[in-house]
Each structure stands twice: as structure tokens, then as C-alpha cells.
Amino acid sequence: MASFSYQLKESLFRIVEAIPPIADFANKWAINRVVKRARFRPHPLSTRQGYVSWPGLTDRRWSGRHLPPSPREDAPDPEALAALFRRRDGHQRLCPKSTCLFPAFAQYLTDGFIRTETEDLTAADETADTRLKRNTSNHEIDLCPLYGRTEDQTDALRLKSGKKGMKGRLRSQMIGREEFPPFLYKDGEVDPDFAVLDPPLGSSDIDDARRAKLFAVGGDRVNSVPQVSMMNTLFMREHNRLAAEIETAHPDWDDDRIFETARNTVVVIFIKIVVEDYINHISPLPFHLRADPSVAWDAPWNKPNWITTEFSLLYRWHALIPDQIRWGGNLHPVHETFMNNALLIDGGLTAGFADISATQAAELGPRNTAEPLLHIEISSMKQDRFCELASFSDYCDYLGQNRPFSFEDISSDPEVAGMLREFYDKPRDVDFHVGLFCEDRVTNSPLPNIILLFVALDAFSQALTNPLLSRHVFKRSTFSGPGWDTIAKTGSIRDVLERNSASDLTDVFVGFTRPEWEPE
Predict the structure, then answer these.
(1) Who contacts 141 (Cβ-Cβ below 8 Å, separation ≥6)?
(2) Pairing assessment for the beta strands 324-327 and 330-333 based on DSSP bridges
(3) Cα–Cα 20 to 30 A to 172, which of 91, 107, 133, 185?
(4) Average pLDDT, stretch 47-68?
(5) CA torsion, ordered 278, 279, 283, 289, to nearest 10 deg
């Protein structure tokens, strides 16, 4: 049963949402309240240097900083701190609110713009440590996992046909009755047509059967697990479906114009889903936030995007992944799903979304990371130290929250608070990354408080500032009649799936929030 306070808030918000002018005002007020918690961009510092410099203000290969570097001596060993993430007796806590569609979408979203530099994309004269401070991001929500990071990659992924009925499409293949991206490998080698694409991370560690099913896509992380390939496949189908509608409406348009118009539309559809489906899922309030571009048009925070090093670290949500993932109606251990697109291909897109939505996510928080993933937590803590991030307490203060004056202010779990006390002299010493994930989960949200605030802050301040949503761009002519109408009628991932599935979804649940969930 929902709590009385939640029911009261829900009733009040329903009244607000029933009156359009009041709903518009409330939506604008709520978004501005979130974004104004932090300093507006441009940030004075980046990870390039610890002082203001022209390269530090302009070279976006380096990640931005919310707070100045704050090196600390005698900090606990990250290897020892892994105990704060390791499960108690191997027991995994589950999230009361979220399905596994939530972490799948989060991974697909963030893989597009939170891109710490990898070995494959590092210049020969750079060191491994430098990679922890640099990125390969375009700093926009631009669906680069679908369209590629660079223009050359986009060209490789396009069909590029002037034939009637083929204009503006992305390259794809039919497997049975389903449309998927083309395969990256041909006769055991990377297809020369796709040589310009970023090498898939982890592909050197898999067998030939899995390698043969890797898709040719815009992102080096898309093939990591089938649920991320599933997301990319859905938006590829939506692009090609829209391109067909736009070509029908504008038979005189050439291949380039149809492609770019469909791309414009899909990017904005994706941004709407980020705000109206994803952010509303993480929000603890029953008020439904809307992706209203006009909120940002005259806002003082409408500035060019630049991904920060803090944002890249707070999105390490490996604890959300359960030990087993449902595919084809069967549960598979997580390690069996790595780079295994056969699970998606064999079951089909609609069944994939249904299975992921039927699988309960794990809970994000301390003492809940699986043993095989602990090395990622350790690496994240080392990156925190190498980038000399300020303490968790400093970031609480930065976001207008009370500094923790006791370890119990960070975690109400006596065991976790006790472990923090063993590792740190005082609450103000707790590392940023450690504090983020030791903090209590917010009631009626899947996220702890500071992570929730940062995610909402960056989602609004980087999604609503997208160039496609600007005052002089966000109009019907930018997206065509079919594109404009599709944007208006899209608010969830399910909406896109319904347009791109041959199956009847009437009795199929697809969503981030478990149908069994009740407010606390």
C-alpha cells in the first residue's frame, strides 16, 4: 500500500497536471530547481590542469570538473575499500522499483557521451594514466552508438542509396523476419566496409562464434551485452521506419536530406524518452516531468555541454545487474550474456524487451556488487584518486545538501557505517566514489541521494540544451511532418517498440518500473 504522504502528493500533482498553464509552470519550476543546485557551465577547470588555462577551457578531450582537484594523503587503499562493495555472504539485494530495462537503457544512454578514453583510442605518445582523465566524447546526446562518433563512421553505417524506397536508410540485414544491424565480421575478419568503426571493447577475449554475431554499430560498447544491442537495434529500426515515411512525404528529397531529417527526429525522440520515461522513473515524486524545450530557451544554464569526470564516475552502476538475466524465457548467468548477440537474434526484439522488463534489477548501494565485478569498483576508486576528486562531503555541500557529520549520516546500515569508521578518520574524509554508493537509497527511487541529484542535474542541463531543441531549430521543418508528428506522440520506450514490432504488445509489459511496485 502506498504511504499516506505519497497518496496526498499524488492527488495534489494530479490536480496540477490537469490544468495546463499550472502544469507548465510546475514543470519549468521543477527542472530549474534541479539544475540550479550546481554552478552553470562553462566550468573553470578540467582534468587537464589544476588551474585555469586556455587549453583547459577549450580542449574537450579532457573531462570537465565540478570542483577543483583535492589531493589527499593517507587515503585508504582501494583494494581494501572493495569490502564496502562486496556482498554479504554472496546475497544480492533486489531493487523494489526497477526492472532490468532501467540499467539497460542507462548503459545505452551513457555509453554515448560518458566515454573515458580506452587503449584502442589513445595516441601512441600518451600514458595509460592519462586515459583516466580524458574522453572520446562528443559531449552531446547524439546517439553516437547508433550513428557513430565521427562523420566517417556515420558514412560507413549508412546505406547511401538514391534508389526509390531506399533513401536515407541505415545499413541493416534481415534475419528471418527481423531487421538487425549488419555483422561487423566477414569470413573471420572485420568487414572492410566497417574498418573505420571503433573496435568493440572486449572482442579479443571471446570465441569465434560470438565474434561472428557482433554487429557493425557506432559505439564500441554496444555489443557488450545483448540488452544494449537490443536498444541500438530498436532505434535503428525507428530510423529506417521514419526514413521511409519521410521519403513518401517528400519524394523529391535526396538521400542526405532524408537521412539527416530522420536522424534529427530519432535524437529528439531519444531525448524525450530520457526525460519522460527514464528520469520520471528515478524521480521519487508522482509528478510527471516533461521534455519541454522552451524551459531552456532563456535559462541561464543553457550553455554548451562538457562531460565532467564526476559524472563519469557516478554512473558506475554494476550493482544494478542481477546475477541472472532472462532471455528466451530462460534465466542465464550474467557471464554467459557478455558479447552474446545470439540471445537477442534467436529470441527476437520484442521478446528481448519483454524478458528484460520481466527481470527485477538489483539494488544500487553498498555490499551488493558481484565478485566478478569488484575489480571495476576498485578501478573506479583508483580513477577517483588519480583525478584528485574532492571528498563526498564537499560534493554534498556543492549540491546544497548537508555535509555528513557522522558516518550514520551517510549510511543508516550499522555495518556499513562501522566499516566507513574503520577506513576513515572522519566523515569529511570519505572518497567521492565511496560515499556515492554507500549512501542510502532515496525512498521511491532506485538511486541514492547524491547520485539522484547529479543524474537529474546533468540529464536536464545536457538534454534540454541539445542544439535540436533550441528556439530556432525545434520546429516542424527540421523534422518533416512525419518526424514532427512522431516526436509529439512519443514519451516512452514502449511507444517506439510498438511502432517497430510485428507482434501485438497488448498483453506485453515493457517498462522501467515493475508493475508490482508500490510506493513506500
Answers:
(1) 109, 112, 113, 267, 270, 271, 274, 462, 463, 466
(2) antiparallel
(3) 107
(4) 95
(5) -120
DSSP string, 11-26: HHHHHHHTSHHHHHHH
C-alpha cell of residue 208: 569465434
| Three-class SS of 137-156 | CCCCCCCHHHHCCCHHHHHH
- Domains in the chain, please, with CATH? 4-499 (1.10.640.10)
The gap between the terminal CA atoms of the chain, to the nearest Å, is 8
Single out the residue of 278, 267, 309 nearest to residue 63, CA to CA: 309
DSSP 373: G
The pLDDT value recorded for residue 90 is 77
pLDDT tens-digit series, residues 38-56: 999 999 999 999 999 999 9
Q: How far apart are CA 60 and CA 223, in angstroms?
A: 26
| Residue 332 φ then ψ, to 5° | -120, 135
DSSP secondary structure code for residue 332 in this structure: E
Cα–Cα dist 499/233, whole Å: 13
Q: How far apart are alpha carbons 387 and 370 in whole angstroms?
A: 26
* Cβ count near 503 (within 10 Å): 13
CB atoms within 10 A of CB 5: 10
**Exposed (0-12), middle (13-18) or buried (19+): which is 460, by Cβ within 10 Å?**
buried
A 10 A CB-CB count for 457 gives 19
| DSSP-derived 3-state class of residue 49 | strand
* Cβ atoms of residues 392 and 434 within 8 Å: yes
Q: Which amino acid, one-letter code, is at 186?
A: K
DSSP string, 467-515: GGGSTTT-SHHHHHHHHHHHHHT--SHHHHHHHT-SS--TT----SB-T
User: Can you list the positions of beta strands (E) in 147-292?
Assistant: 173-175, 178-180, 185-186, 189-190
pLDDT (tens digit per residue) in 163-180: 999 999 999 999 999 999
